[in-house]
UniProtKB/TrEMBL annotation:
Its EC number is 1.1.1.49. Pathway: Carbohydrate degradation; pentose phosphate pathway; D-ribulose 5-phosphate from D-glucose 6-phosphate (oxidative stage): step 1/3. Residues 193-489 form the Glucose-6-phosphate dehydrogenase C-terminal domain. Gene3D superfamilies: Dihydrodipicolinate Reductase, domain 2, NAD(P)-binding Rossmann-like Domain. This is Glucose-6-phosphate 1-dehydrogenase. Keywords: Carbohydrate metabolism, Glucose metabolism, NADP, Oxidoreductase. It catalyses: D-glucose 6-phosphate + NADP(+) = 6-phospho-D-glucono-1,5-lactone + NADPH + H(+). Residues 12-190 form the Glucose-6-phosphate dehydrogenase NAD-binding domain.
Length: 496
């Protein structure tokens, strides 16, 4: 029988009235409770300025869980573990009262002084909160204390360093859990297993057999309500600096010598160190950007980015990025990793396509153009699984080949979707497993890679809008691959 380890802790959510807490965190904590991963020995304290009572807070938590999860039972029991403590986090005196509340809850719920401080707030507050938690004695409890930090971790390398120094003045690196929610996705975690648990892939996983790797993360949604953040961020900082580079490092890393946090992180860090740096003056050779104009997404007419609420009518912010990333190491020299991500694209989908090199001579296709390279497709979302594209004999013909697909669908295993990334990451954090969180070195190396690109783009006005909402991005993204003799493999559902 499997024994589930049930961690005990008080979780303090700074930014408890915000979008992230409501859409992701409360439903995830509920799923942990519903699935028996946490028992009765936990409490959640919400912090924000709004003058809510415990009752109003609990009603909000209940409604966000109901919105996210259809069959939600025992909600009253669940929300009875929630407490609300209103204050402005910049006001030092309020931390005294928070400390007393946490001590009381430790006693009431027998949480042994274990605490998670989850900063679901704008990064400008991270340093103040971390240092106040230290100065007012909230982190020295006799139990363990962990600080979870949301992205964005800085705006560039310099601001990320400053932020890191502020946080490190109060917390040790081992106590800091920098969330990249892509690392909580089932199939992103599966990359490592698919690669290193299969001899047929691992032996071919290098520049002798792979011609290129393509990672597409497309979104059909636009900027929604987040223009004030996104205008300053753009797709490069919002998606590439973190999620896309994390996927690159998992695809490219060497096998870890042990499955420990340190060993896995250390292999990922080596990949980031081997990224070929791009100088400002050569950005256009490797990267293209785009911004959506009006168009039609899934049959619905939508505005262009510049017409969205709180967006500048001459905005120079990119909503799409495509890039060619080179990794200058023994395994990957000469193999481009192409990435593309954007908002208001044709559909919501994240997929990785590994394209294998052609065999030297293929007698089984009459015409060279029919020859299909072998592809391994890793479906990250919305469907989860892998598809291997091979060639086999066409039924009842002579020796003529036809492409076939072998598919494995992860969703089908227990008839349920795999749990939300946040649920897994929160549980990992409670267990003290930081493997799927980003180390400071990864954050710093990723910023060092993207900074010259954002600097170059800040200096010139993009020729925007340059792709229609509902398309797969600007033409320049196709040209980026065409120059190398490749093309994007379609990532629509027909291609599974
Ligand atoms: N939303 C999302 O999908 C994602 C968000 N993130 C990141 O998560 C963080 C939070 O984002 P999100 O929830 O969208 O932001 P919101 O603007 O929706 O929420 C911000 C929260 O901070 C509180 N707050 C603001 N100022 C103070 C203050 N001085 N003292 C106490 N509380 C304060 C607000 O409550 P009140 O007004 O009541 O004080 C609110 O609860 C950001 O860093 C964001 O980049 C990352 C990935 C995805
Ligand atoms: O971090 C972010 O990710 C989401 C996309 O996440 P997904 O899990 O839905 O693929 C993106 O919409 C958002 O802009 C960005 O901040």
């Amino acid at each position: 029988m499997n024994t589930v380890h049930m961690p005990k802790a008080v979780v303090v959510i700074f930014g408890a009235t915000g979008d992230l807490a409501k859409r992701k965190l409360y439903p995830s904590i509920y799923r942990l409770y519903q699935n028996g991963k946490i028992g009765e020995e936990f409490a959640v304290v919400g912090v924000a300025r709004r003058q809510w009572t415990n009752e109003v807070f609990r009603e909000n938590v209940e409604s966000s869980v109901r919105k996210a999860i259809s069959c939600s039972e025992k909600l009253h029991d669940f929300t009875s573990h929630f407490y609300y403590h209103p204050f402005d986090v910049t006001n030092p005196s309020s931390y005294h009262d928070l400390r007393s509340l946490l001590n009381d809850l430790d006693g009431k719920y027998k949480t042994e002084g274990n605490r998670i401080f989850y900063l679901a707030m704008a990064p400008e507050f991270f340093g103040t909160i971390a240092n106040s938690l230290k100065d007012y004695g909230l982190k020295d409890t006799g139990g363990w204390t962990r600080l979870v930090i949301e992205k964005p971790f800085g705006h560039d390398l310099a601001s990320a360093k400053k932020l890191n120094e502020e946080i490190r003045a109060a917390f040790d690196e081992e106590q800091i859990y920098r969330i990249d929610h892509y690392l909580g996705k089932e199939m992103v975690q599966n990359i490592e297993v698919i690669r290193f648990a299969n001899a047929i892939f691992e032996h071919l996983w290098n520049n002798r057999f792979i011609s290129n790797i393509q990672i597409t993360s497309s979104e059909s949604l636009g900027v929604e309500e987040r223009a004030s953040y996104y205008e300053k961020s753009g797709a490069l900082r919002d998606m590439v600096q973190n999620h896309m580079l994390q996927m690159v490092s998992l695809l490219a890393m060497e096998p870890p010598i042990k499955l420990t946090t340190e060993e896995i992180r250390s292999e990922k860090i080596k990949v980031l160190r081997a990224l070929r740096p791009i100088k400002e003056e050569e950005v256009s050779k490797y990267f293209v950007r785009g911004q959506y104009g009006k168009g039609t997404v899934k049959g619905e007419k939508v505005k262009g980015y510049r017409e969205e609420t709180n967006v500048d009518e001459k905005s120079n912010t990119e909503t799409f990025v495509a890039g060619k990333i080179m990794i200058d190491n023994y395994r990957w020299a000469g193999v481009p990793f192409y990435i593309r991500t954007g908002k208001r694209m044709a559909e919501k989908s994240t997929k990785i396509v590994v394209e294998f090199k052609d065999i030297p001579m293929n007698l089984y296709f009459k015409n060279k153009d029919e020859n299909r390279p072998n592809l391994l497709i890793i479906h990250i979302q919305p469907d989860e699984g892998i598809t291997l594209h091979l060639n086999a004999k066409k039924v009842r013909t002579g020796s003529i080949a036809t492409p076939i697909k072998l598919s494995y669908n992860n969703n089908g295993i227990d008839g349920m979707n795999t749990p939300e990334a946040y649920e897994k990451l929160l549980y990992d954090c409670m267990l003290g497993d930081a493997t799927n969180f980003t180390h400071w070195d990864e954050v710093a190396l990723s910023w060092a890679y993207v900074d010259p690109i954002s600097n170059a783009w800040a200096k010139e006005n993009g020729d925007f809008p340059n792709y229609k909402a509902g398309s797969m991005g600007p033409k320049a993204a196709d040209e980026l691959l065409a120059k190398d003799g490749f093309h994007w493999w379609p990532v629509t559902n027909d291609e599974k």
